[in-house]
Amino acid sequence: MIADSGLLFTFFNVAVAKQYLPAILEGTLVTVGVGIAVVITGTLLGLVLAIARSFGLRAVALPIVAFADIMRSLPPLVVIIVLYFGLPSLGVPLSAFAVTWLSLSLVLAAYAEESVWAGILAVPAGQMEAARSTGLTWWQSMQSVLLPQAIRRAVPPLTNRVISITKNTALGSVVALNEVLNTAQGATSHAGNPTPLMMAAIAYLIVFLPLVIASRSIEKRWRRA
Fold first, then answer.
1. What does the DSSP assignment read for 50-76?
2. Calpha distance 133→153 (Å, rounded)
3. For labeling, which of 34, 88, 94, 143 is most exposed (least CB within 10 Å)?
């Protein structure tokens, strides 16, 4: 019982939890906000880049391939630091929120572009030719025939990548983004008790565990489609 009481006092201290609950909730909202923004902009940009690459123009395709390769090679932390300290020298200072959002969006866009592009390549070329032979324009054929099949193939490998990259919002702490982990670390240092870190862990479970379960369901459903 003494050991149990010590464990509860150390990791689940009610007084500490009550004191820092508002700050943890605020940090969680920042994490969720950045994550949602990254998912929306990253996947949309990746989709646009994949479509642009399908034009077949080397002048368009080569920069897209270079962007995707570079962004997939660099650790997200490096991208965040480079943009945070590099953009002000170009006269484009951004907040910690904006830099974290932009950096992770670019990383996710690179993976999304490659996933959608692989999906486009997996669709038999004859389907585009058949669609064009019915009188559809290139864009109508892409929109109605190729993209639905390409996206269906891209979703399974992309879902886990989306979750992994959105969890990287914690990297925003290096540029003083007050997301949930950074807030919890500061609260832990101030309180001299790890309860805020346990609260942050619970917040991550509440936010990301349903996404992990949903991604597994999506993968199974789309693979059968």
1. HHHHTT--HHHHHHHHHHHHHHHHS-H
2. 25
3. 88
Provide the residue-wise pLDDT of the chain in tens; the chain has 225 residues.
444 566 776 778 888 999 999 999 999 999 999 999 999 999 999 999 999 999 888 999 999 999 999 999 999 999 999 999 999 988 888 899 999 999 999 999 999 999 999 999 988 878 888 888 888 888 888 888 888 888 888 888 888 888 888 889 989 888 888 899 889 999 999 988 899 999 999 999 998 888 888 878 877 776 665
| 130 token code pair | 């058949």
Tokens linked to 16: 């500490």
Per the structure, the count of domains in the chain is 1
- Give Cα separations from 99 to 40, 41, 46, 80, 85 (angstroms): 16, 13, 18, 6, 10
First to last CA, the chain: 54
Q: For the chain, what's the residue count?
A: 225
pTM: 0.88
Question: What is the domain range of residue 126?
Answer: 2-224
Helix, strand, coil percent content, the chain, rounded in steps of 5: 90, 0, 10
Give the chain's largest Cα–Cα span.
Answer: 79
